[in-house]
Design brief:
The complex is a heterotrimer. By secondary structure, chain A is mainly alpha-helical. Chain A has 14 helices and no strands. In chain A, helix 2 (about 40-55) packs antiparallel against helix 3, helix 6 (about 140-160) crosses helix 7 (about 160-170) and helix 10 crosses helix 11 (about 235-260). The longest helix of chain A has 29 residues, at about 1-30. Chain B is α/β, with parallel strands linked by helices. Chain B is globular and about 70 Å long. Chain B is about 30% helix and about 20% strand. Chain B has 16 helices and 21 strands. Chain B has helices at about 50-60, 80-90, 105-110, 120-135, 150-160, 180-195, 205-210, 235-240, 300-310, 330-335, 360, 380-390, 410-420, 440-455, 465-470, 495-500; strands spanning about 15-20, 25-35, 40-45, 65-70, 75-80, 90-95, 165-170, 195-200, 215-220, 220-225, 260-270, 280-285, 290-295, 320, 325, 340-345, 425-430, 455-460, 475-480, 480-485, 485-490. Chain C has one domain (about 1-55, about 65-355). Helices cover about 70% and strands about 5% of the residues of chain C. Chain C has helices at about 10-35, 40-50, 55-80, 90-110, 120-145, 150-170, 205-220, 225-235, 235-240, 245-270, 285-295, 300-320, 330-350, 365-370, and strands at about 1-5, 350-355, 365. Chain C is globular, with a radius of gyration of 24 Å. Residues about 355-360 and about 370-374 of chain C have low confidence and may be disordered. Classes of the chains: A mainly alpha, B alpha/beta, C mainly alpha. At the A-B interface, helix 7, helix 8 and helix 14 of A face helix 2 and helix 3 of B.
């Protein structure tokens, strides 16, 4: 029973960076911008967060550094893809490749370094509940932030006028432009905010989850977060659900190893990636459903004044 | 309304003086002047490319002029953005709607208003205005489920909610049946009587003469005349618009021969969530005749065209036959080999690839230059493009010019020419002269008539009733995915076709067994 | 303020100039970076752009590394021109190495002998099939399930890496290899034939050059190539013309998978002559950059392949000579791609300096509206 509780706890922790990054990407995609640079943003934010944590010992500064790094990378992407109308796919790819190289370069100084031990965080009273205590209430605050973020984003998108404008921009930037809305500025804001969120997710990985730095720490989670938005058909609550699902699959490999299952560790490591493929295949099967839920202008360039 | 110490001449609502706008390739507006009085319905007449859209964009703040002065109620102003225009009281209803398909009508209107209350307040005001002006609209319906006429109503209601002092309407009747046009005119006259000025952009002479108090005519970016259309004839307006009366088309009696295309009982479910189902389509086209299909856009024309061209190859066996051969499941290439050629309504992106040269674009439908093993003989490809450019009077920078560098009319001439030059036995054309200047339009219509006289079967789908009455021998109407019976053009009237566009032709199936009653297609 | 104005016709001149401008800017930024790191900029730039070409041996290393880059990038060019976003070339490369390496190991097990290169064609063929099979998974899922080829092909990269690890740590590990994760060394007969004595350059390089020509013909003189490109430029026009989107998808992915697999097998059977977890140093991803810098054009790709190969070698040299981390190459590669994308805007747009329109004596509309709500 205790093992199950620990598994649940590990799943929550594992799914949290996916959820936060997924929500950040969702924001940009709702505005019609596809940022394939998620992996790169998370990598740069991870090293920024780790470096900040190592040098200052403060979690808050580390997360702030991660958010800033993610936002900066996203701004670079936005400058090209929104400002100069470059191909969104290629530009996002460039961001990922650049991020991989840059983070590896800067991170050389931090390989093998350790962060000071952290006092385990517990919600008072709730943490002592049988089963639910260790399962749910002994998590890093960021895990709860992720859940709050879902609610906040859902409220913003579907209950505020600003959120409606954002969705309109994603549906038809040409119409929004004709109505006088600053489409590019709105997209920029969405992308940069999304980048900051991806940055927080990256910092979480290196400062809380691992916690260490090696080249390629993010191990494809940025790409999985991209798959999450499709899996969630662009609805915030489903992003969280999907994130926990993938977190669970990732944890599964350790659980299986621990249970003595006779499968080589490398094959088990494939699980999260294979799971992503299977999920994508199942979700994308109905093109009509995707069309109704997907922001219509996703990935397409927008030319004001055409 | 007017101050007592007003000057002797009544103050104009809007006055443009010597407005000019230069684009890289063309001077869109050349010292244009416009004077609109309060409560006046003022037409801006001109053919495609005359500069009407640019002028409206300047008034609406979407574009800044290079020179000239704008005065609003006597005061000089600089309109720097649509928001500033709206603050003045200028409201615009676009030809191509600025709507968001997945949002509701109320949300769409809300987005178009600058300072609005909550969504609920706006919904209430929508209900009120639509009742008042007779523009039925359900605020909670998502836009993708609405007909084109209903979508236009959203645009108009949105404009009305801003209490406009000047309302600009850009080609509003291209999506309406003749009966709906009458209803729109009633609304506009009411607005004008309340003191709102109306700028009515159109190239339809009959409508302008029926509705408007005053008319400014544009040609080639310049004003060629300011007249009272109620006292002018169509010929007079035409002369101002294109510099001459339109060249009369040579009409010869049609001599229909064998059946080229036969469609029997074609029913197709819509391919996309926002499409139209086709039901019970029955008609035929014979060699040597032009059959026209009329209808307001959004009633299944696109689906029917795709089914005939081969882009949608799901037609059940036996429903579509060409010269006796079943082609329902055949891809476009196979249909072309049998003599069926198609000109789609979208030029850039479907009829031609924008960034490829004219020469490369011939390969889309003309494969004579493809050698053995798939080797492309570029010399032959270029030669074909050159001959098309010459034969069809296409103004372009040679066969290497990119398709997107041509004007709409010239590109259309090239595409139509490409298909006619292939010596088809059946030519299907969708919206042949949409967005094309009058000169090119006349050339294209002339080419279609010549083709018919040479024995080719021609099917034309068009939203312009005038065009169909001019060149078609027989008329059909498509409404809500169904096709009316055919009628000889000589025996048809605009009123009758207008009714048919609402689905009200003799024998129209309204039985309960035909499934849920669809939305009426008329506005 | 600066405004972008669309050109009526894409500019041919800028199409060629853009990569050069991007390269120049990258060099500039690289120099600044060296200075910021406390190293002599000229020395640093020299290591990346001059040293690698210093002598026949050095040039042979550049061409050796360029070969897999060019092969992969040619396949990717076909994909990207068809608007099929295959970014899993790295995975297809690894499967090619696995398949080719597996074939070489099997042939060695069968006891084949002979001069160097006798069985190389078989090994390479196995690599092509392996790469194609891996890409076929992506094609199948996109075709049947509409799944994004970007995400599927990328996930398969991670799967491929784990597969390679599994094989060299497990069933294929060399029993006489002191427990290192590596396979037995392949038999000489399965190696690629050497091209230049006293260098590692092999005939694979010549094959790459031949492929450059073949791909040029395919893209610009073949009916199939035309169909693929129209599908990428204007899908509605391709449907109108009757070009099969499905067949284009499969062609694009199988071609690029096969080329990446070929490159992978070549690396395994060429310079490495065994399989290790480090068969690829990110060739599949670097090839993406080669593809774009080469303008998705076979000739450009050949040149860009050489350029990026120089950057790769420069990175290694910078590590040993200047004490800078090897990851520096990754930074330069990313920079180059960014700058290239930015410069590419100039192909379709002109930069203009725009001033305002109306005479400044006119009041702003907002003021007039407040004053007189007529």
């Amino acid at each position: 029973m205790n093992e199950l509780a620990l598994l649940v706890a590990a799943t929550l922790a594992s799914g949290t960076p996916l959820a936060i990054a997924g929500l950040g990407l969702l924001l940009g995609e709702k505005a019609g911008v596809l940022n394939l640079g998620a992996e790169g943003m998370m990598l740069v934010a991870a090293i920024a967060g780790f470096g900040a944590a190592f040098l200052t010992g403060s979690d808050t500064i580390a997360f702030a550094a991660g958010a800033a790094a993610g936002a900066a990378m996203a701004a670079l992407f936005a400058l090209l893809a929104i400002g100069l109308n470059t191909n969104q796919y290629a530009t996002g790819l460039a961001l990922s490749l650049f991020g991989a190289g840059f983070s590896a370069f800067v991170g050389v100084a931090f390989v093998g370094k350790k962060l000071p031990d952290r006092a385990p965080f517990e919600l008072p009273l709730l943490a002592d509940l049988p089963f639910f205590g260790p399962a749910l209430f002994r998590q890093h605050p960021m895990v709860y932030v992720a859940i709050a973020l879902v609610a906040a984003l859902a409220w913003f998108l579907y209950r505020t006028r600003a959120g409606l404008v954002l969705r309109a921009v994603g549906e038809s930037p040409e119409s929004a432009h004709a109505l006088g809305y600053p489409v590019r500025a709105i997209r920029l804001a969405a992308v940069v905010t999304g980048g900051a969120l991806c940055g927080i997710a990256g910092a979480f990985l290196s400062v809380v989850y691992a916690p260490l730095w090696v080249e390629g720490l993010v191990a494809g989670r940025g790409w999985i977060a991209l798959a999450l938005t499709t899996f969630a058909t662009w609805r915030p609550a489903r992003v969280l659900l999907g994130a926990y699902l993938f977190g669970g699959v990732t944890m599964l490999q350790f659980a299986l190893q621990g249970a003595g299952v006779e499968v080589s560790s490398q094959l088990l490591s494939m699980l999260p990636y294979l799971a992503t493929i299977v999920v994508l295949a199942l979700i994308s099967r109905n093109p009509l459903w995707i069309r109704i839920n997907m922001p219509a202008s996703l990935g397409k360039p927008f030319h004001p004044g055409s | 309304m007017m101050p007592t110490d007003a000057p002797a001449t009544p103050m104009l609502r809007l006055e443009l003086t010597a407005i000019s706008k230069q684009y890289p390739a063309v001077k869109a507006n050349d010292r244009v002047s416009l004077r609109v009085a309060p409560g006046q319905i003022h037409a801006v007449l001109g053919e495609n490319g005359a500069g009407k859209s640019t002028l409206m964009k300047i008034i609406y703040g979407a574009v800044r002029p290079d020179e000239g002065e704008i005065r609003w109620n006597g005061e000089p102003v600089a309109i720097r953005s649509p928001a500033e225009a709206r603050q003045l009281g200028i409201s615009m209803v676009y030809q191509h709607f600025s709507l968001f398909d997945t949002l509701t009508a109320a949300e769409n209107v809300w987005l178009g208003l600058d300072k609005a209350g909550s969504l609920a307040e706006v919904s209430a005001r929508i209900a009120q205005v639509s009742r008042e002006y007779g523009l039925e609209l359900d605020p909670q319906r998502p836009v993708h489920s609405l007909s084109v006429g209903e979508r236009q109503r959203i645009e108009i209601v949105r404009a009305l909610l801003t209490n406009p002092r000047l309302l600009i309407l850009d080609e509003p009747t291209s999506v309406l049946t003749p009966q709906a046009v009458e209803k729109l005119f009633v609304t506009l006259r009411r607005l004008a009587s309340e003191g709102c000025s109306i700028l009515y952009i159109s190239h339809k002479l009959d409508e302008i003469r029926a509705l408007c108090h005053h008319c400014t005519v544009l040609r080639g970016g310049r004003v060629t005349g300011e007249v009272d259309p109620r006292t002018e004839t169509n010929a007079g307006l035409s002369r101002l618009m294109i510099g001459a009366e339109p060249p009369p088309l040579q009409h010869r009696e049609a001599r229909p021969g064998e059946v080229a295309l036969q469609v029997r009982g074609l029913a197709l479910a819509k391919a996309s969530p926002f499409g139209t189902d086709l039901r019970d389509i029955d008609f035929e086209v014979r060699a040597g005749e032009i059959v026209g299909i009329a209808g307001v856009s959004g009633n299944g024309q696109q689906e029917l065209m795709a089914a005939l061209s081969g882009e949608d190859a799901r037609a059940p066996a036996g429903t579509v036959t060409l010269f006796g051969q079943d082609i329902g499941r055949a891809p476009p290439g196979a249909r072309r080999a049998l003599g069926l050629h198609f000109v789609p309504e979208e030029r850039l992106g479907r009829g031609a690839v924008p960034t490829l040269s004219l020469a490369a674009n011939t390969l889309l439908t003309r494969t004579e230059a493809v050698g053995r093993g798939g080797w492309l003989r570029m010399g032959r490809v270029r030669a074909l493009a050159e001959s098309l450019i010459r034969a069809f009077n296409v103004k372009a920078g040679g066969p290497k010019a990119a398709a997107r560098s041509l004007s709409g009319g010239n590109l259309q001439k090239f595409i139509v020419g490409r298909e006619i030059d292939a010596k088809p036995r059946l030519l299907i054309v969708s919206q042949p002269t949409w967005g094309v200047d009058v000169g090119a339009a006349a050339q294209i219509r002339g080419a279609l008539l010549t083709l018919r006289d040479e024995g080719c079967a021609v099917l034309v789908v068009s939203e312009e009733l005038d065009e169909l009455f001019e060149i078609a021998d027989r008329l059909l109407v498509i409404a809500q995915g169904r096709l009316s019976p055919g009628v000889a053009t000589s025996k048809a009237t605009v009123e009758m076709i207008g009714e048919w566009m609402s689905g009200l032709w003799p024998g129209a199936d309204r039985a309960a067994g035909a499934g849920p009653l669809p939305e009426p297609a008329h506005a | 303020m600066l405004k972008l104005e669309a050109r009526a016709q894409p500019s041919q001149a800028m199409s060629v100039a853009s990569p050069l401008i991007a390269l120049a800017l990258t060099v500039l930024l690289a120099g600044l970076l060296f200075a910021a790191l406390g190293k002599d900029p000229l020395k640093g730039l020299g290591i990346f752009f001059v040293e690698p070409l210093n002598g026949v041996r050095a040039v042979s290393e550049v061409l050796l590394k360029a070969t897999p880059l060019i092969l992969c990038a040619l396949g990717l060019a076909v994909c990207y021109r068809s608007n099929v976003w295959n970014i899993g070339a790295e995975g297809q490369f690894l499967l090619g190495a696995i398949a080719g390496g597996g074939a070489a190991l099997w042939l060695g097990h069968q006891g084949v002998g002979g001069p160097q290169g006798l069985y190389a064609p078989l090994v390479l063929l196995a690599g092509v099939v392996g790469g194609m099979a891996w890409a076929a998974i992506t094609a199948l899922l996109r075709d049947r399930c509409n799944a994004s080829e970007i995400l599927v092909s990328l996930m398969l990269v991670y799967v491929a890496q784990q597969l390679l690890n599994y094989l060299v740590f497990g069933p294929w590990k060399d029993p006489g290899g002191f427990n290192f994760p590596q396979t037995r060394t392949f038999e000489v007969a399965t190696w690629l034939p050497a091209l230049l004595p006293r260098s590692r350059l092999h005939w694979g390089f010549v094959l790459a050059l031949v492929m450059v020509v073949l791909f040029w013909v395919f893209l610009f003189r073949s009916w199939r190539g035309y169909q693929l490109q129209v599908g990428g430029l204007a899908p509605a026009a391709a449907r109108y013309a009757g070009f099969s989107a499905r067949s284009s998808l499969w062609t694009a992915l199988l071609v690029s998978g096969g080329m990446a697999g070929l490159a992978g097998a070549m690396e395994a059977a060429g310079p490495l002559r065994q399989l290790t977890p480090h068969v690829s140093t990110g060739y599949g991803f670097t090839a993406i950059i080669v593809c774009f810098v080469g303008r998705l054009h076979p000739l450009g790709i050949a040149l860009a392949g050489v350029l990026l190969s120089m950057l790769l070698i420069g990175g290694e040299l910078a590590q040993s000579r200047l004490g800078l981390p090897n990851a520096l190459t990754g930074v330069f590669q990313g920079l180059l791609l960014f700058l290239l994308l930015a410069c590419d805007t100039l192909i379709n747009y002109r930069v203009r300096w725009k001033r305002g329109g109306l005479a400044s004596t006119a009041l702003p509309a907002a003021v007039v509206a407040k004053e007189g709500a007529a």
